[in-house]
């Protein structure tokens, strides 16, 4: 356990300065095509606690509170050395200003408007991250044979389109996207008619040939300031109607070396543009051909469980974990009690624990975490047990 956690700490020390502040929060001002649900983006501010014991972190006051941190620490995991908590939008902006005034470098998952945070406070200039993550510029980084056939059109052209073949429409103006939001899969005329008004705010969109994936992976890499690149591993993505619903992490997920080679090449090009940190690339595989469909130059939803899985696998004697978000139908206190029971039974490991008390909107207690399994039947059994206790998968 100790060796693994030391290795994990060394990974981040090798990439970032230990005085850097990690900020996972999406901008309150600019959600782009992301769902405008503050709880979604508040709860994920606790997702990386268990992998960043040596970095200060910004998070919502409702996530990983003292009793939840005690639960995490009971497993042998460390917590961030300093936690900066915000209450609401106004408090969050005040906190950003405070961090900037302390001359602290901030690791920004999502760039904010200049008036909210000066670009000099970022660890990587925001224009670099925005350009690298822009879906319209993927061909600058990926070998053309590994990009789905695509065209870029303006919105007026989209409005006049009629359905011919299944297509994927993506936002092409660089607005924030994640988890499949900002992407519309059109399998028929009805889908297209819904997609057209959805993209009304975009001056241009990307049309991609629809390819039914046999596999959908997220491959992840790290790169430090000097350009040393490390392949961190791959996770299987769980997608429903084009929206990310979780990942499978563990021995059941394999990745071809050619995909890793292409991903390494992308990281090398990104480093030349000024990027360092962790990135995750979405890859689909169909008929022995692989395609890079999205490049995320930030920590991804499955980064924490991917890095934790070697430790968790040994501790809980499980080869695989399925990442998911669950709401709980009873009280927060009862949820914590149930989480202890699930952990002791080697069923579930929590990453981010949400207490809705004093939140601006009435919401149920929730948790992001890993359901353990060695076989598919065991996964079904464990999910059934969680449902019986009052956990509902989102």
From TrEMBL:
Give the record's keywords alphabetically: ATP-binding, Nucleotide-binding
Coiled-coil ranges per UniProt: none
Show where the ATP-grasp domain sits.
Answer: 114-325
Extent of the signal sequence: none
Nucleotide-binding: is it a keyword of this entry? yes
Superkingdom: Bacteria
Tagged with keyword ATP-binding: yes
PANTHER family referenced in this protein's UniProt entry, alphabetically: CULTURE SPECIFIC PROTEIN, PUTATIVE (AFU_ORTHOLOGUE AFUA_2G00130)-RELATED
- Protein name stated in the entry: ATP-grasp domain-containing protein
